[in-house]
Structure formats: C-alpha cells, structure tokens
Amino acid sequence: MADTLAREPVRETAPTAPAPPRRRRDRLVLGAALAWLVVLLVEWAADGRIWPGHLVGIVPPAAFVIVPLLLAALAPLARGAARWRSLAAAVLALAVGFGQSGVDPAALWRAEPRPGPDSVRVFAWNTNSWNQLLGTQDHFYAFLRSKDADVYLLHEYQHVTADRKGRLPIDDLARLRREFPGHQVAVRGELVTLSRFPILRQPAVGPAGDLPPGADWAAEYRENKVLRTDVLVRGRTVSFYNVHMPVWNSMPDGLLSAAFYRHMRERFAPRRAQYAGLEADLAANRNPVVVAGDFNATAAMSDLDPLRERLDDAADVSTDPYPTSWEEGGWKPFWRTDWAFTGNGARAERYAFGEPERLSDHAVQDLWVSLPGNG
Length: 375
Hints:
The protein is an alpha+beta fold. The chain has helices spanning 2-7, 21-46, 63-74, 80-97, 128-131, 137-147, 173-179, 217-223, 258-284, 305-310, and strands spanning 120-126, 151-155, 159-160, 167-168, 184-188, 191-195, 199-201, 226-233, 236-244, 289-294, 312-313, 338-343, 347-354, 364-370. The strands form three sheets. The protein has a six-stranded mixed sheet. A six-stranded mixed sheet has the order 7-8-9-10-12-11. It has a two-stranded antiparallel ribbon with strand order 3-4.
C-alpha cells in the first residue's frame, strides 16, 4: 500500500489562468461602447438643468457622430454577443447624439441658393472688442462696408482693459455714421444695429427691461444681451434681434483651475435669464423675425433647443455639411457658436460663414432673407 501511495502522481492546484487576450478585447470593445452611451445619457440629464452640464460645450459637436462611428467600426474586433452588443450600443449612441452633432449630410447635395432681388441682406458678427486687438480701424471699417448689408448686427462695441478681464465703453458713433451714411444706428450696451431701413422702435428684451432709465453702461453691458429693433421694410414691420449671450466658460483660466468652475456656476443663472427673456419676447412677437448673433452655445448644448424648435435655423439652406464659426485664427474652428434663425414668414434664402480677415476670432454670418410677399 505504501508503494501504491508512492506511485500516485502528486496533484497540484493549477494557478488561475489570466483571461485570454480575445476575452479581454471583447470586454474592452463592449466597455468602450457602453461607456460612451452612458456619457451621453449623463450629459442629457445634466445639460441645461445644472451648471456642470455646460461642460458639453468643450466637446466639438462632430464628436457625437465620429465617436459612435469609430465604436461601430471597432465592434467586429469582439466576438459573439459582445460584438452585437457593442454594435447596438454604438448605433444607439449615434441615434441619441446625432441631433447634437451639428452635422447636416443633406448639405452635400443641396443646390447653391440664389437669393431673390427683394432679399434683405443681414450681416452678423462678433467684432472682437470693436477691433481693438487686431488689424487697423481703417481695415475694420473697409471690411464692414464691403459687405454692403441692409442690416448689420454687431457685437462687442467695447474695449477691454489691459488684463482683458474688464470691459470699457467706447464712443465711435461719429465714425459709424460717417462710414454708413445710408444707415440708421441703434446702440445699447455692447450691441450695435445698423439698418438701411427706418428703425421704428427698440423694445427692451429680457433682463434689460428691468433697467431704470439712464442706467450706466456697465449695467447695460451686463443686462442687455439682446437688442431688438423693429424695422420698416417696404411697408412691413420686421423684428431683428441682435444677440450676444454671456460666455459660459473662462478658458484662459484652464480646466484645472477653480476659477473656471466658479465662472461656470456664476454665469449659469444669468445665461438662463437671457435665453428665457429672448424666448418669451419671440413667443409674443407676430412680426417676421430674424435672430442672429453670438449665442456662445454649440449644437451639443441644450440652450438653443427652444429656439430651434420655434424658428428655422438659417443653416438649413447652407451647402456646408458642418458649419463652424469659432475659433477663427486658431488651429481649426471646430465649434459653431454663431447662429441665425428666421420665423413668422421670414425665410433664409442663403446663409454662409465668411472669413473675418484676421479681425476677429469669429467668422462672419452672411444671410439673405425673404419676407412674406417678397419671396
């Protein structure tokens, strides 16, 4: 018996084998697809409801198409159920996020628009502190005049302090009137509207309506982010809304700084108030409307959703499948923060972003609009 015991092989417990490489790859591919889907759902729940939701503005909107397409392309690397689950998650993420991407495939086969002879040409632009920092004033005014627009919606009629954190009022009205003798001028805070047609009135919009008469420029700058001008165009009153919403971030401070997040938190409520004021005014306005400017919001952000539901995005007539307006002069403008909308019978006939000739970090918006009975 002793010999039998001696001859029995010694049975050793085998160490736990690591997961085969194929299994790890399955988990990685499926995990990436599910993680992106979870990110989309969290972003949907947060954006517009709490201030950290504005972080989605950092993401180039095209990522909402590019990322799920890449994940779908990686799905075949997984096996069996993991492959089909990864593909399903990627397709669902594409469906959920496409509306936030700013991508318009139909623009690829859209014919080049031809505005009618009675179209009103509108030029909207963030002037980068009235060209304080780039170019010359002669170049600046020559550039504006070259557009020969019927209506100009201009923002940042101001200068900045040496540290670029403060805002200062300016008075360039004499030159404006000299350079545009055929236009009427409306100014409030940092917003300037020039109109070749008679300006009938300038109703206050949103928080600006609560300002007392004769409020100082600092208060106007802070509260007045929408300048509405009702203009008489060939016997019809048309409302033009010149918009420059407060910026939600402080990118110079950097994502790792407390100042960045403090800025986000402090700007959240004022931005909501400005958007709410604009939406309420539009809801009560039966005139044909043109709304254009720097909204400091991308297609990925929910701030624009009520406007996009009520009005027509001028980009619906553009031939650019992914229009962008910022940051001009940087490596690549990946974001569209400048928007134009029409409604109540006003209709965009042609819409395009143009080069700012190194005078601003925002592209210019060139828009031709037809009015009821004129198009």
